[in-house]
Amino acid sequence: MLRLSSNETTLDICPEVAGSIWRFVHQGRDIMRPTADGTTDALMTASFPLVPYCNRIRNGEFAFEGKKVRLSPNLGNGHPHPLHGQGWRQVWQVIETSATRAVLSYVHDADEWPWAYEAVLVYELRPAGLRAYLSVKNLSRNTMPAGLGFHPYFNRTRQTRLKAVTTGIWRADDDCLPVSWHAGVLRKDWSQGDLVDHEVAIDHCYTGFGGRAEIFEGERSVLTLRASPDCKWMHVFAPLDHLDFFCVEPVNHMPDPFNQPNSGLKCLKAGETSMVWMDIAVN
User: How confident is the model at residue 76 (pLDDT cuts 50, 70, 90)?
Assistant: First the structure.
């Protein structure tokens, strides 16, 4: 476990569980959902990186530049659609540390994902906030499709509200895969700071994300999330069986990107790198 510290702010990082954020505390208050002792699954941490793609790929099947690829399921519970790439299921190596900064790396050798790559994750702690960088470099000779994002979990009550500018929402099927796009508002008007609490589970991708999301408790703003300009998609996950958290995920492409036009997925030539960043500022 690594601990970064700046004034009244601390950040605990666990390299062995996906390079995840374990706990983020400011003035004695948990800014993100804290991780329970003994956790071994990144899904139960405070945040983890998404690389080299975000969300699900339908049945793990796609073709890229004439090459057919088949990925194995990685969620469990019989879910057939692999998600979030490889980085969230791997141990990350510590490259560099200081009192307020940590650099971690994960190197992937080509396997069923037939491209080699290196992902680098940087955490920089500020007096009242955090900046995280995530990059991926194509180590293969052939062009590699690549997507990046962050999966932070935030605390949630019945009064929690989310405010963010978006242009539309992808309706999803029962497997949380996109089926049709709806322009403007559907159920939740995040632009007005809507309540996260809802009568059905929310697990949707929103388009045209303006790069800024603000979280409120009632009328009080508690934190602001900002993301790099190419994170034009925001995925919101608010389950019904866990009412104490929700996720606001800045990502640079939509779910099931190989099966949708203009999905945002990058194409990296040999040696090329893609990078995204996320800021979390305590208000």
Answer: confident
